[in-house]
Design goal:
Elements (H helix, E strand, L loop, with lengths): L2 E7 L6 E3 L2 H9 L3 E7 L3 H11 L3 H8 L6 E5 L2 E12 L2 E11 L3 E6 L12 H7 L1 H4 L3 H36 L7 H28 L8 H76 L2 H5 L5 H25 L4
Parallel strand pairs: 3-7
Antiparallel strand pairs: 1-2, 1-3, 4-5, 5-6, 6-7
């Protein structure tokens, strides 16, 4: 659902809420500057920015587009900055675009095109109020305050992903057979998405620090350098975590190979024992087969000798089996 908020900022004063877009146009003509915040807007809702504030139509097209990378575009009278905010809930990473249209007299923010928790921006007014003495200096200081809030939320998401990586590492060590490698592939995809976003955001803020956007003043450059340092640190964190995902995948494969090798060794031991039993009983089976196929008197020498004959035959089989075992042991086949 679309919503709009308009604020009028005057030096060292609390911002005043403006009820209509017409009041925004009147406030722009006076002192201070205005902040126009659009949450989930439509093309019709943003069209007055083109008609009344001189925003380029391509900017509105970018504000309504999807799957764009962070960038900075400079137009006559204003500049367009595309930034990203992160959300992470239920193992799902959400990257939402936050657009800034900045000029000396107004700052426009556009967000909310991706369904996200509403409390993401609930603490933003509190942050602005705490830095009221700074944000009332100009639209560039207000944009920095909003960016700084968004960057702080990025760190929360990165910490959650790091915690998941640590949990995955413990699971691989404790029970590699039960671990699902899809978890590593999911985390790897999240790290690649964050890396792509942070890489381009760092370039955008670098351009702001070089004052490629005319609305960035000398005094606000130092504030944007602080954001640049945070983004650089986050980019390094993501790179380290991305390498950690690769190392964990190698660890998982190594653990699985060790597990399969252990099973193979156990199977070899079983086969070795079965082969030993078969080798020992093979000549005994041959003798018992020959004796079983022969005539009764051929083994006993008569009915009166069967007890002695069969007893001697059984003793001979035991001795032969024992000699066979000793031979295998002497050959070190056992």
């Amino acid at each position: 659902m679309s919503s709009t908020l308009f604020f009028h900022f005057l030096p060292k004063q609390k911002p005043v809420i403006l009820p209509t877009f017409e009041s925004v146009l009147e406030a722009i003509k006076g002192n201070g500057f205005v902040w126009l915040d659009f949450n989930g807007p439509t093309a019709e809702l943003l069209q007055p920015l083109v008609d009344q504030l001189g925003v380029h139509p391509l900017v509105i097209e970018d504000c309504l587009g999807e799957n764009q990378i962070p960038k900075l575009d400079v137009y006559q009278g204003n500049s367009f900055v595309l930034f990203n905010s992160y959300g992470y809930d239920g193992k799902v990473l959400t990257i939402e675009e936050i657009d800034f249209i900045i000029s000396p007299k107004f700052l426009v923010t556009v967000h909310g095109r991706v369904e996200q928790k509403s409390e993401f921006f609930t603490r933003l007014p509190e942050r602005i109020e705490r830095a009221l003495a700074t944000v009332t200096k100009g639209t560039d200081f207000l944009m920095h305050a909003i960016m700084d809030y968004v960057v702080d939320q990025k760190f929360v998401v990165i910490e959650k992903l790091e915690d998941e990586l640590e949990a995955v590492e413990r699971q691989i060590h404790d029970a590699p057979a039960k671990f699902k490698p899809q978890e590593l592939m999911r985390l790897r995809g999240h790290m690649l998405a964050l890396r792509k976003s942070l890489f381009h955001e760092r370039e955008v803020v670098s351009k702001l620090c070089r004052k490629d956007a005319p609305c960035i003043t000398d005094k606000s450059v130092y504030y944007f350098r602080d954001i640049y340092d945070h983004l650089t640190k986050f980019f390094e964190f993501v790179e380290i975590n991305r390498e950690m995902v690769s190392n964990l995948f190698e660890l998982y494969l190594s653990a699985r190979n060790n597990h399969l090798t252990e099973i193979s060794l156990q199977m070899n031991e079983v086969m070795k024992r079965l082969t030993l039993i078969t080798t020992i009983f093979m000549p005994l089976t041959l003798l018992s087969g020959i004796g079983g196929m022969s005539e009764y008197s051929a083994i006993t020498g008569g009915t009166e000798n069967w007890v002695i004959s069969y007893s001697a035959f059984m003793i001979a089989m035991v001795v032969l089996g024992w000699l066979n075992y000793k031979l295998l042991k002497w050959k070190k086949w056992v």
